[in-house]
Specification:
The complex is a heterodimer. Chain A is an all-alpha fold. In chain A, 75% of the residues lie in helices and 2% in strands. In chain A, the strands form 2 sheets. In chain A, strands 1-4 form a two-stranded antiparallel sheet. The chains are: A mainly alpha, B mainly alpha. The interface between A and B is large, with 47 and 42 residues.
């Protein structure tokens, strides 16, 4: 018989931090010593700004993964909502309505995937995989395969503006992360999402309306991808149909690096932010080292595998020591 | 204890035999019905669809997808999130290495063996990461996807290797008994792996692991060894598809194979293999591969813009699986 590990000796504050947090600290300290210009305020702000788009998308992915599902459609939904917003702006629709149309596009995609998962009973992988292709295809069709550039100043403020020297996307990302944290920790829906991830059957028996919760969480995920798409379009001053390719992988990698297992039921949005920080810092370091893009692709793959693998091995080792 | 494991063994054995019977005679029937429906509809609306040339063309295109989907089906059958995202990149890496071996003047057979071994090696690494380190397959194969793609980009430095010897060109562009070689390669591989999956202990172990990993382990299945083999097969199949592909194109470059993994997953899933594991099989996968290829072919013949094709592919995956769930598997 293996005893349960006695974790009460470890302080709560340490237990709550995912193991990969230390990897982040080591990465930042090494980089700021060895790479000139990494530790400057402007560069750190730059990392935060670039990370904020991924943070918004990864929040949705966290919800899906905690419920032991997955959302592969966030990247292409992001592109689609950028394209829709761009088209709306070019059609002369007021900015507020154009932004709303972009966010609504994301929400509708989320509702469709949510209904497919919740009421049709498709596996999340298949439903979101289908939505991934459909959103990509629709984005390409609507934009005719080309980017939609050039927006007015007041719209670009959402991507480039600053409030008290803090970039607007960063503020929006912080607000969203706080909301999702609150949703997971202090609302009934959050509790239900953990319960569904733990065991869907038991959740159903306990009277949780599993279908409605799933619909809600995939809708939130789609909506967040829509918001990120609008902000990214404002930042890049163009809506591009393939801008989001690969974002779902970055988002899922961030979630898993942050300590939420793909089997669901555990983890949270704070861990995901550690994951987002690792991915963003890594990209920044690779850029500052002026590594060519093949090296970047290779290293990101290797580091994702090593970070998560180390985390798993360390946990197993600790269990063996204590148990 | 011995008696109990015997019981489990007979139980899983019976369950598996039943599963195979359903798969061959009942389960994949709906896919073939879907396929026949698609062919009938297309032959009415698409010009030049119903010709021998077009069908041979479709089978040639489907054979590449089928070779990759064989590995993907085995991997997905093992369940617990089993998936191989790396096959597109592994295809590019192994076929580019084989191409440069050919260009270096090595004999065709040696080059082919080099390509296949690199693919198998990548698959073996995937399997080791999944079994020994305990990484989720999604993450391990995502890492391999990035690493293999980066490696082939670094190795090729943007160059294109073209113009292979006629002996190597034969496997992609040649004909045997009036049939294109890719179709024959895919057919032989399909026959071999169908036999392996449905008629050998190894195949039953794959199903047993997918159906219930703990029960399989208790009844003496060496789970890790089977998983290692399955991921290695998937890598080798990707390499095999890559060799046929570059032989047909008569050129190899580092960017080939992008998004091939999605096509293979789509073919497998439309073919009725479930991510829950232990359900489905290769018979359905051949229907899935043909459905996707006929659909693309039909859209091309109808002159539908390539921009729409992704949208249609997505809708077909969703509606095909939904249709299947509601009309054939309601009782499940």
């Amino acid at each position: 018989m293996r005893r349960e590990p006695n974790v009460s000796r470890v302080p709560v504050s340490v237990r709550r931090v995912p193991g990969t947090f230390y990897i982040l600290i080591i990465m930042i300290s090494l980089a700021s010593i060895t790479i000139p210009g990494f530790g400057t305020v402007s560069n750190l702000l730059n990392i935060l700004l670039q990370g904020s788009f991924l943070a918004i998308v990864a929040c949705g992915a966290t919800l899906a993964i905690i419920s032991s599902g997955i959302d592969l459609s966030v990247g292409t939904v992001l592109s689609l909502s950028g394209v829709v917003t761009g088209l709306a702006l070019h059609a002369g629709i007021p900015i507020a309505l154009a932004i709303l149309s972009g966010v609504l596009t994301g929400l509708i995609c989320g509702i469709i995937t949510g209904s497919l998962v919740a009421f049709v009973g498709l596996e999340p992988f298949i439903a979101t995989f289908g939505m991934m292709s459909m959103a990509q295809g629709l984005g390409l069709v609507l934009s005719n395969g080309a980017s939609i550039p050039g927006f007015q100043e007041s719209f670009r403020w959402f991507g480039e503006g600053v409030v008290w020297k803090v970039p607007v996307p960063l503020i929006i990302a912080l607000v969203i992360v706080a909301c999702i944290w609150w949703l997971l920790r202090h609302t009934r829906l959050g509790l239900y999402i953990y319960a569904i991830g733990g065991s869907e059957e038991v959740a159903g028996w306990s009277g949780i309306e599993v279908g409605r919760c799933k619909l809600a969480l995939y809708s939130i995920s789609g909506c967040l991808a829509g918001i990120a798409g609008v902000l990214l379009a404002a930042r890049m001053n163009s809506g591009h149909p393939t801008v989001g390719v690969g974002w779902e992988m970055d988002a899922i990698a961030s979630v898993v690096i942050g300590g939420t297992p793909l089997t669901g039921g555990r983890g949270g949005v704070i861990g995901t932010m550690v994951g987002v920080a690792i991915v963003s810092v890594l990209r920044n370091i690779l850029n500052m080292l002026r590594l060519s893009s093949p090296w970047q692709i290779t290293l990101i793959g290797a580091i994702v595998v090593i970070a998560i693998g180390l985390d798993i091995l360390l946990r197993r080792w600790r269990l063996a020591l204590e148990g | 204890m011995y008696q109990r494991s015997q019981q489990i063994q007979t139980l899983t054995h019976n369950e598996i035999s039943k599963g195979v019977a359903t798969e061959v005679f009942g389960g994949s029937g709906s896919r073939f019905l879907l396929l026949v429906g698609l062919i009938v509809v297309l032959s009415f609306i698409a010009p030049n669809f119903l010709s021998l040339n077009n069908f041979i063309n479709v089978f040639r295109q489907a054979s590449l997808l089928l070779i990759m989907s064989i590995g993907m089906t085995l991997v997905i059958l093992t369940g617990r999130g089993g998936i191989d995202l790396s096959i597109g990149s592994v295809l590019a890496l192994s076929s580019c290495m084989a191409a440069s071996a050919l260009k270096a003047g090595l004999p065709v057979t040696v080059s082919i063996i080099i390509g296949l071994s690199i693919g198998a090696l990548c698959g073996l690494v995937n399997g080791a990461l999944v079994t020994m380190v305990g990484l989720p397959a999604f993450i391990a194969t995502f890492g391999m996807m990035q690493i293999a793609r980066g490696a082939v980009l670094l190795y090729m430095k943007g160059a294109i290797i073209y113009g292979f010897s006629p002996a190597f060109r034969f496997i992609g562009a040649g004909h045997l008994f009036g049939l294109p070689m890719p179709v024959i390669v895919a057919g032989v591989l399909f026959a071999v792996f169908t036999f392996v999956l449905y008629r050998t202990p190894f195949g039953k172990e794959v199903y047993a692991i997918g159906a219930n990993r703990i029960a399989a382990e208790l009844s003496g299945v060496r789970v890790n060894r089977v998983l290692l083999t399955v991921y290695t097969i998937s890598g080798a199949m990707a390499a095999c598809a890559g060799l046929v592909y570059i032989s047909r194109l008569n050129a190899a470059e580092s960017v080939i194979g992008q998004l091939f993994e999605l096509q293979a997953i789509a073919a497998t899933v439309i073919g009725g293999t479930s991510f829950r594991g232990g359900e489905g099989g290769l018979i359905g996968t051949i229907a899935g591969a043909l459905i996707i290829t006929f659909l693309n072919n039909g859209m091309n013949l109808l002159g539908i813009s390539s921009l729409w094709q992704l949208f249609v592919l997505g809708s077909v995956i969703v509606s095909g699986v939904t249709f299947d769930m509601y009309f054939w598997h309601r009782s499940r």
